[in-house]
Amino acid sequence: MKPAVAEEPINQKSSFDFTFKTKSNEINDMLISIENNKTDNFHNILQKINELQEFLNDSKTFLPAYNMKKCSDEIKHITKRYELLHEKLQPKKKFAFGKQPATSAVAKAKTKAEDKFEQVNQLKVYKEDCGFKNRSDVNNLVLTEHECHMKDVALDTLINCTVLMCGTPSTVRATSLTKCKVYVCAQTSIFIENCKDSIFICASQQLRIHDTFDTSFYIYVTSSAIIENSKQLRFAPLSFNSAILKKAFRKANFDEFKNNWKIVNDFDWLSSYEPSPNWCEIPEEERQQPSEETDNFITDQ
Fold first, then answer.
1. pTM of full prediction above 0.70
2. DSSP state of 253
3. N or C: more exposed end of the chain, with fewer CB within 10 A?
4. pLDDT tens string 188-197
């Protein structure tokens, strides 16, 4: 009987190794196919990466720390390759500023030169990708359903602002936000970097957080949250006291009962026996998820 008991974890790990290799090879083959044929299959690849991450999460209980690190590194490599390929074959258009009145050639040249020295409190609304940049102390930055539906949204250098996205953007990238609140339901992924002292109320398939500190997340995620080089992060499940976000959630066809908010993968903490010191759950008695009603939004939704 003893040999049978001893072989069980070995068989479990062997099965994991085979399945993980099969799934990762499938993703790499899809990436090669896109690179050679330039076909648009990025959504399916992202789904496969999410499934691979979920499979690794489910195997934490029996995988040694070394294997967890090795597999996590491989997923990081695949994800990076995906991002580079996506950028290469579907590059974002350069950001263009909002509409301006017709001006002379001299005035245009002057304006172009002054753009290099733009003040933090100037509003920049991107025409192609859409989003907000260089704003401070604004409590109602709103993207309507029409403005952000299936778009790539960029939030950049916002201080003490509240942002509400009424539709379902495809992806959202939030960079350098301080003391901000962001409400968003993205169809695929949300990427957050270099943010601090902020609150994100968000739903997506994939959530990646880099270089972020002292920030709270009320989230819905179908795969898992991934953090790197981040500290003092707090997580709680998304609740639906936000009417506009709930409407977007339904449009994204997310299942309210399949929320993996508790699965947070810290790439800087690979021990499967002790919790990461870089994040924690928000105790139930301390969860105070804000809603857009409390932030005095005025929209036409």
1. no
2. T
3. N
4. 999 999 999 9
